[in-house]
């Protein structure tokens, strides 16, 4: 059994007991999130595709932790002009544990 959900502007394929990393959500660690935006649901031979979403299926997930990704270095330079700019960025993320898919 798996489902494709739309969460925080991105699509994720999830199964029960999966851990997924999503863009930073405004939720407390330990809280439970319900995702109603289920785009596809498959249970063996039964595959259902939403137009655009399925109404009667929900995915529940628990917030495990928040964190930050590895640093990305942005370096700008113009040759012969003594122009150099170095910037770093770390994107925030949230780890979710999928509790179940309620069909």
Architecture overview:
The structure is a single chain. This protein has one domain. About 0% of the residues lie in helices and about 70% in strands. β1 and β2 form a beta hairpin. The mean pLDDT is about 95.
How many helices does DSSP assign?
A: 0
Structural class: mainly beta
Given as residue ranges, the uncertain stretches (5+ residues, pLDDT < 50) are: none
Shape: elongated
SSE run? EEEEEEEEEE
Lateral arrangement of strands in the main beta sheet: 2-1-5-6
N-to-C terminal Cα separation, in Å?
Answer: 10 Å
Strand content: over 45%
Helix content: under 10%
Count of domains: 1
The mean pLDDT is 96
Largest pleated sheet: 4 strands, antiparallel
Strand and helix map with partners:
Elements (H helix, E strand, L loop, with lengths): L1 E6 L2 E5 L4 E5 L8 E4 L2 E6 L2 E9 L3 E11 L3 E7 L4 E7 L2 E11 L1
Antiparallel strand pairs: 1-2, 1-5, 3-10, 4-7, 5-6, 7-10, 8-9
Write a concise synopsis of the structure shown.
The chain is mainly β and 103 residues long.
List keywords for this structure.
103 residues; elongated; mainly beta
């Amino acid at each position: 059994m798996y489902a494709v959900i739309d969460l925080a502007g991105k699509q994720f394929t999830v199964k029960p007991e999966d851990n997924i990393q999503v863009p930073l959500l405004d939720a407390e660690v330990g809280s439970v999130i319900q995702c109603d935006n289920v785009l596809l649901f498959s249970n063996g031979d039964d595959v259902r595709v939403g137009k655009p979403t399925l109404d009667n299926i929900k995915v529940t997930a628990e917030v495990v932790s928040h964190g930050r990704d590895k640093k990305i270095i942005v370096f700008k330079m113009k040759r012969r002009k003594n122009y150099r700019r170095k910037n770093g960025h770390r994107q925030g993320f949230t780890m979710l544990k999928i509790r179940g898919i309620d069909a």
